[in-house]
Amino acid sequence: MSKSLRVGVVGVGYLGKFHARIYNRMADVELVGVADTDKTTVDAIAGECGCQAFTDPAALVGKVDAVSIVVPTIYHLEVARPYLEQGTHMLMEKPIAPDMAAGTELVALARKAGVIFQIGHLERYNAGVQAIIERAKDPRFIEVHRLGTFVQRATDVDVVTDLMIHDIDIVMAMVASPIRNIAAAGTSVLTDHVDIANARLEFENGAVANVTASRVSNKKFRRIRVFSKSNYYGMNYEDQQLEIVSAKQGNKEGEIPDIISETLTVETQLPLDAELADFITSIKENKKPKVDGATGLEAMRVALAVKEKIAACLT
Asked: What domains are there in the chain, each with its CATH number?
């Protein structure tokens, strides 16, 4: 492999165009081309980035060392297969697949090819999230709210696989224990899919997570709260700053602990820039990315289980 890593982007709609722009300004990375079935869109992004434009999703096979797949989830396996069979490193936007069968096949194809296969769980690269995961050892209770206004482009998916899956992945990374029980409820409001959902995840080590996601709120509100034995961590996803509350035991027996509160200023970062940088570094150093295919597949398995619980409540 040459010093300059040849990359491409398949799917340059709302999110894919940002992939292309970020790759285009990376050192030691050559954006060879972008592909999209919308000729007007792909020509515009290719012109902006100074690379080739293709309307065939498979046109970059054999021309690149690595590729971002940013197409609708239902096309993931179809679009990714020729690249994986060619031995192309891949960053695939979440969720990994529409179902477990397709996701399992993608992981198997990547493993057989021996390539880096990363899933785009963007919130893992939120600096505040990383700070909580590093500090919140043995969490007992986690509460997450991810509320947002309705976005027209999300009409083909439900709120669980669109939004809640981010927090499912974060909670599972934090607790690191198998899930023993899932309870969930939800309903549709604006689409034919579930638009508001709540899930309670109970882990074998006794930890509990309560996760709520909505895409019909009149404002954006994204916050995580983590409670451990002697610490509380709170973070707003937007400003990435971490609030820490600790109980400091006094010297006298039976004395009520002092409550110490502080705000940890985290050096913020643009999550997508950090995610793509991790992808490129993982390829160059042959290391596991923060969210590999197996991790993305497990998050998808839990998200599908949540959807099944919701469906059971609605019937």
From this structure: 5-115 (3.40.50.720), 125-269+301-314 (3.30.360.10)
Per-residue pLDDT tens over the stretch 23-81: 999 999 999 999 999 999 999 999 999 999 999 999 999 999 999 999 999 999 999 99
DSSP sequence for the chain: --SSEEEEEE--STTHHHHHHHHHTSTTEEEEEEE-S-HHHHHHHHHHHTSEEESSTTTTTTT-SEEEE-S-GGGHHHHHHHHHHHT-EEEEESSS-SSHHHHHHHHHHHHHHT--EEEE-GGGG-HHHHHHHHH--S-SEEEEEEE----GGGTTS-HIIIIIHHHHHHHHHHH-S-EEEEEEEEE-SSSSS--EEEEEEEETTS-EEEEEEES--SS-EEEEEEE-SSEEEEEETTT--EEEEEEE--SSTTPPPEEEEEEE------HHHHHHHHHHHHHHHT---SSBHHHHHHHHHHHHHHHHHHHHHH-
Question: How far apart are the C-alpha atoms of 134 and 137, rounded to whole Å?
Answer: 7
